[in-house]
Amino acid sequence: STNVIDYMIENSNQLNIVFNDADDRNETGFLLACRSGNYYAVEKLLEYCERYHYPLAMKNEIHQVTGLEMACMFGYQYEVELAGGEFNGDKPYHPSNEYRERTKRTTEILLKHASRSICFFENLYLDVNSTKSGRSALMNAALTGRDDLVDLFIKYADACNIDFNLRDQTGLNVLLMPTIKAFRGPGCYESGA
């Protein structure tokens, strides 16, 4: 419920909530909200942290995956798990329209934040071009066939200084990625050639 989210964030000091506490996979509540497409929680956390200059962790420090990357790629796995299924990286998964809309809204909120944080919120900086996990968020959006997310990256290209020439661990840049025939889970794909 949005009331619960509002209450917990606004009263985090009294409730002793530490936004950067992580679970056993080193994911914080913010990162889980990004991954699950909980755009309301993402937006409220960013607003709160900007207002009070709280240094919110923008990535999983062990796996080097940012919240933006999670919103663009890992969410489909999360939706399968929520539905009680087991994720199988060998079979492509097509997210529901509702989930696609939630992750699109989450991605746009993160890109809007990134465009502001470059200039004003150094402690909340979200590196939209990070490839420390192997690929950038834009690359993940292209590989998972999310044209709607790619459109958002184009929309925010100037404001966020998005680099379309970055290469992934195999040497492909985002312009070559739409030719990928079958995305087979995190880190695995086959060339369409």
Structural description of this entry:
This protein has 193 residues and is mainly alpha-helical. The protein is 47% helix and 4% strand. The chain contains eight helices and four strands. The strands form two sheets. The chain has a two-stranded antiparallel ribbon. The protein has a two-stranded antiparallel ribbon with strand order 3-4. β3 and β4 form a beta hairpin. It is globular and about 50 Å long.
Number of strands: 4
Strand numbers in spatial order across the main sheet? 1-2
Helix content: 40-55%
Structural category is mainly alpha
Cα shape: globular
Report the mean per-residue pLDDT as an integer: 79
Number of DSSP helical runs? 8
- Indicate the low-confidence ranges by residue numbers: 119-123, 180-193
First-to-last CA distance: 47 Å
Task: Give me the strand/helix succession.
Answer: HHHEEHHHHHEE
Largest sheet: 2 strands, antiparallel
Sheet-strand content, in percent, reads under 5%
Alpha carbon gyration radius: 16 Å
Topology diagram in text:
Blueprint: H1 2-10, H2 29-36, H3 39-52, E1 59-60, E2 65-66, H4 67-82, H5 97-120, H6 137-143, H7 147-155, H8 157-160, E3 182-183, E4 189-190
Helix pairs in contact: 1-3, 2-3, 2-4, 3-5, 4-5, 4-6, 5-7
